[in-house]
Amino acid sequence: MAICRNFLWGGPAEYHKVPLVQWDEVCQLKKYGGLGIRNIMNWNLAAIMKLNWDVAGEKDIILWVKWIHTRYIKNGDFWMYHPKLGSCYYWKEMLRVRNKFKDMPHPKPYEIREGYNWLQGEFAMEMQKVRGGKMRKMAIAIWATAVYFTWKWRNIMTYGIRRHYPRIARELRKEGHNVVVFEQSHDVGGQWLYNGQVHAEDPLGRAKFLKVHSSVYASLRLISPREIMGFSDFPFVTKKGRDQRRFPGHEELLSYLRDFCEFFKLREMMRFNTRVEYVGIMDDNTLELESDIRWVVKSKPTTGSNAKVLEEVFDAVVVASGHYSQPRLPQIKGMNAWRGKQMHSHIYRVPEPFCNEVVVVVGNSLSGQDISMELVNVAKEVHLSAKNPHNISEGLSKVISKHATLHIHPQIESLHEDGLVLFVDGSSTIADTILYCTGYSYSFPFLDTKGIVAVDDDRVGPLYEHTFPPSLAPSLSFIGIPRKLIGFPFFESQAIWIAQLLSGKRTLPSWEDMMQSIREFYKSRDLAGIPKHNTHDLADFDYCDKYADYVGFPHLEEWRKELCISALIKSEINLETYRDAFDDHEMLQVAYQSPHFAQLECLDYTQ
Length: 607
Prior knowledge:
Elements: H1 2-8, H2 23-27, H3 40-55, H4 62-73, H5 89-97, H6 109-120, H7 122-129, H8 133-152, E1 155-160, H9 165-174, E2 178-182, H10 250-263, E3 270-271, E4 274-281, E5 295-301, E6 310-314, E7 316-320, E8 326-327, E9 341-344, E10 358-362, H11 366-375, E11 381-385, H12 394-402, E12 406-409, E13 412-415, E14 420-423, E15 428-430, E16 433-436, E17 440-441, E18 447-448, E19 454-456, E20 459-461, E21 476-478, H13 487-502, H14 511-527, H15 541-551, H16 558-573, H17 585-592, H18 595-598
Parallel strand pairs: 1-2, 1-7, 2-3, 4-18, 7-21, 9-16, 10-11, 10-16, 11-12
Antiparallel strand pairs: 4-5, 5-6, 8-17, 13-14, 14-15, 19-20
Helix pairs in contact: 1-3, 5-8, 6-7, 9-13, 13-15, 16-17
């Protein structure tokens, strides 16, 4: 207790009982400006380092408090801080020699433990003999550096099945965190890891934990050109012997993600064939004060008949599980009694099983249009049900006029046991199969936040900037929630923000300010008439730039915006051919001359 008291109070003579750092300022949450030291383990760490400070013979005990106050309360950076006039000699000396140790490698947990033993043992004895000089000054800087990296270091769990988790894994490791990525598949790629096997026993995907997680069908191609999709430090370029198309198939994007992981050596952080079954807030009755939020994670191998659940504790959790696995289904009268085959596009792979069938495709989105154009070549008839069949794109109109067996209808009124599908305009057909291309829902069946985070009609919240639940930030974050953005640049800036917040480089607004921001966003969506289930559909270049500003990430380049808009316009006009017929060569040359692609001259990953 004496050590802890001296840690918080200090000063010679009449200042012995003066609180240089107030108790409530230290113990309150970091979002309110405190240190957040509410965990016994962290108190022990602080006490051990303070003891080592005393062993070194440092008589000015306020020096330690100054360092903590500078680094953790006033949001100052120890490495950039300049001493003020009147600062004590040892404080100025410690700042003077700090740069010698700025680039020390990030210590691993076992190295930190060994360092404690060494500091308390042999080195402490030597320090009692050597009370001054350069050795002592360097030791002070070493201790400050050790504590800096110890506080900075976090044990972080990432659970992902999409393209985002390689990026967040890289950014977290760059910040010195110890990262574990749980991947339930056998390889990187998540959603883009094509699985030709489908499970007929759950064609609508209603199970809590789906057996098939990829929704990729065999013929799927990207809807955006590869040039706009790469990460900032890893352009998505063509490689010899692979898909050379600008709008490549899903296999090419999977290969890109594999290349990214190999180039930056990310596989060592990943546990493949491992499903996360539970993530919850840790209850710790040993804490004297309000606990730092920590997370219990239970995982289980997906292979092996005797697989056992492994329980671990993490300081932070990043959820990167995506939102293209849990089917979203409409509520249609007679749906449960209809005797034909019903399935969601989640398990659609190839058109051959629908040969000579009458198929009703529900949903006029990207997948609905893509699959309808593919089915029309093998099916007897294809009936596409859209919310507004009189307001379809020019490109879809061209496709319908080209194929006599492709019909457009409004929404379904009801389904009947004899196979009849009745549409709201009174038209009908007798169908063999109904294929629901109705999108996906956000689902986190493994996550228990005690009701703090909930999914309400596809609105995940409350989330500050679609990422942080204010009451649990930054220890819990979500990456990849927003839709209809240029994904790779946005999610890269999102990953950087999460990683830097966890390392203490950046701070979030207060809880009140974050909640107010969320309420204002919800209100703006309501006033615009946007349904709740479209809360996270942003489609906004400016929002990408706003997010980039949080971490000093570059704004979207004009060529990237132009190529994106061009692809969207072409798809509206020529749905069948826009991926292979384009006239954006001038803008493409601007892109290839940009710094993004110029870095290829210095990096060796294009072969």
